Amino acid sequence: MSRIFNFSAGPSTLPESVLLKAKEELLDWRGSGMSVMEMSHRGKEFMSIAEELKSDLIELLNIPDNYKVLFLQGGATGQFAFIPQNILKTKSKACYVNTGAWSGKAVKEAQKYCDVLVSANSESSNYTDIPPFSNWNVDEQAAYLHYTDNETIHGVEFNDIPEFGDIPLVCDMSSNILSRSIDVSKFGIIYAGSQKNMGPAGVTIVIVRDDLVGHADKNIPSVFDYAQQAKNDSMLNTPATYNWYLVGLVLKWIKESGGIDTMQKQNKLKSDNLYQAIEQSSLYSNPVKKEFRSRMNVPFVLANADLDKSFLSLAAENGLSSLKGHRSVGGMRASIYNAMPKEGVTALIDFMREFERTHG
Ligand SMILES: Cc1ncc(COP(=O)(O)O)c(C=O)c1O
Fold first, then answer.
1. Dihedrals φ, ψ of 52, to 5°?
2. CB within 10 Å: which end of the chain, N or C, has fewer?
3. How confident is the model over 69-87, as pLDDT tens digits?
4. What's the gap in Å between 23 CA and the centre of ligand 1?
5. Which member of 56, 149, 172, 225 is catalytic?
6. Hey, what domains does the chain have and what are their CATH numbers?
7. Which segments of the chain are extended strands (E)?
8. In this predicted model, what pLDDT tens digit does every residue of 131-185 receive, in sequence order?
C-alpha cells in the first residue's frame, strides 16, 4: 500500500489512524457482530456512537450549555438557505460580509429570503483582503450578521471575531472549524460541512444558540427546522450514520493528538513554513495580504503560467496530489487541514524548491 500526500480542498485527506480504525471495525463494531453501516440508528450501539460524537464536539470546542449541537444533511450550501428561514424571525433584513467565493454564494442564496445588506466587500481587491471592522456598514437592527471565517478558494482567513452590539453573529467555519480555539459564546450560529477538518462529506454541523431556535418560517421543511431537529437529537429523519461514526473517529483522533491547542500550533507551523517558502522564491507568489493568509488553504501562482501543467504532473509523480487551484482563481492551492501531516508540507516545499531550481 502506498499513500500519497493529498492536498485536496475537500473532501480531503483523513488521518491514517482513523482510516485504519474504520477498517478494523468495518465488519464487526466492537463485538456487536455488525458494521456501523448496518446498525439501526435507534439501537443502543449507534446511540452510544451518537452520544460520544456530540459530547466530544462539545468538549473540543468548549460549547456552552445554551447552545444546541445539530448534525444535519444538505451541506453548508443547505445552511445558506436554512439560516435565513430559521432565524429571520419577524425581520426582513440580514447583513452579510463578502470576502470571497463562498460568502458570495451565501449572499445569493439569502437574497431569496430577505433583503441583504452587504456590510463589507473585498471584491475590488480580488478577495485578497478583509476590510477593517471600523469600515463595515452593519445595521444592528438586522436579523443577523453573516461572515465566512475561512475562504477556501481565495485562501483568506479572519484573525479576529467581529462584534457589533447584540446582532447575532453567524459564521461559516466549513474550512477551518477545529483548527484553532474559538470562543463559541460570541456566536449566534456556527456551521460547517464535515469534509475538510472533520471527516468525509455528508454531515453538516450546526451549533446554534438557544434564543435562535424555534422561530423557523412555517414553510421550512421539518428536517431543516432547528427546533424540530434539536427536539429529535438530529434524528428527525434517518441520519448519515456511518458518516457520524467517521466524524466521531476524527474527533477522538484530535483529542488523542492533544486537542485543539495542538492542532492550532501544528497548523501555524505548517502554514508558516509554506508561506515562507513562497516568500523566499521568485517563481511562486501568494496575493493575499499577510495578516489574512489562510492557515488551511494556501493558493499560489507561478510567475510563468505555462509551467503550471508540468508543475502539476511532476508533483503527482512525486506523490503530491490535488494541487490545482480552483478554476475561478487558477494557479495552485495546497489545502493543509488538521490531517495533513507536517511531513506532507515539508515534501511539498522540497518539491517546489527543486522545481524552481530546474524550471525557474
Ligand atoms: C467555506 C465554505 N462554505 C461552504 C461550502 C459548501 O459546502 P458544501 O459543499 O458542504 O455544501 C464550502 C465547500 O467547499 C466551503 O469551503
1. -70, -40
2. N
3. 999 999 999 999 999 999 9
4. 27
5. 172
6. 17-256 (3.40.640.10), 259-359 (3.90.1150.10)
7. 5-6, 67-72, 93-98, 115-121, 145-148, 150-151, 156-157, 169-172, 189-193, 204-209, 284-285, 297-302, 320-321, 332-335
8. 999 999 999 999 999 999 999 999 999 999 999 999 999 999 999 999 999 999 9
